[in-house]
């Protein structure tokens, strides 16, 4: 299990350039005109995690398998998309299927055409957010009409759904996205079933010029302030630099290139880390002589849930999870050292996984 992020934004902000860099492919055409991405491009990338390399080295694993992250490059949105303008219908349909939104904002000047004629990332962010809220409100109002009729006939499900719909409508009418609504636990299932576009978590990516890749600029500072005020996250990168890094095949060469620019890691690593935090995900590992592998689950997942990510039979027949914390595995020089030091624990069905746990599952077939 990885996670699925839709890369969105206005035309010509660097979405496809970023997508190409992140996936190290040329699957999306990066051109200087709107709607060069007509169909959504999907790319799966390995999640870089130095911990995996370290445990694999200690276990002398023959194969290393990182967890995967999926990016979807979605056609640029313009004002009026909720009413079908531009590629509006395609945009809204494609974004509905992703788990989170990576909202790319142009934070650089230059000759590349901007659909609104000037560079203003805050305005651009509001344009996309507004279109999502308008589309949501249209959907919610239609559902309110349908469920009001059913509720009058004492339909209990319709009454429960109507109560949630009316709360959502009130928030949207105030110009606030659905994710700002405080939903009660007993209403969460109904809320999630609405598949609201503005309920999806958002990571803002400020695309800056190469000279500002390490420090950001005035545009990206404004985006960061906007994101923090909304309880969100912002990462600033240079899509142009990411494209250059992606073209380098040697890891040492990549690191030297980044160091020369004052960067410690790629934009991909920063986007992934922010995305994990955004979606509430963590990584656990399995390791042995054949392979070392990273897996992704949601924070709060139990040991049986983790086992089920590997195979449903593991969860169904779960007995216990032999568990070593990552730091203990490294400090004790591997599994045997952890066992000898009493650092391997036998955890049962109630155990909640922690980031970096190394599991060996015991189960009945």
Structure description:
This protein has helices spanning 15-23, 50-59, 88-95, 121-152, 156-173, 188-193, 218-229, 239-246, 251-260, 267-279, 303-310, 312-316, 326-331, 335-340, and strands at 4-8, 41-46, 63-65, 68-73, 100-106, 202-207, 233-237, 281-287, 291-298, 318-324, 345-347, 358-363. The chain is α/β, with parallel strands linked by helices. The protein has three domains: 4-48 and 67-118 and 200-279, Rossmann fold; 131-198, DNA polymerase, domain 1 (Orthogonal Bundle), CATH 1.10.150; 300-363, Ubiquitin-like (UB roll). The protein has a six-stranded mixed sheet with strand order 2-4-1-5-6-7, with helices on both faces. Strands 3-9-8 form a three-stranded mixed sheet, sandwiched between helices. A three-stranded antiparallel sheet has the order 11-10-12.
State the main characteristics.
365 residues; alpha/beta; Rossmann fold; DNA polymerase, domain 1; Ubiquitin-like (UB roll); three-stranded mixed beta sheet; flat
